[in-house]
Amino acid sequence: MRVFNNFHEFDSFCKKVLKNEVFNFHNEMKRKQKREKSFSELSPQELAQFCAKDDYFDSMQIFNVLGNDIIVKDGRVAEALKNLTGRKRDIILLSYFLDMSDREIGEKLNLIRATVQYQRSVTLKELKKILEGGHTDA
Question: What does pTM read for this prediction?
Answer without folding.
Answer: 0.56
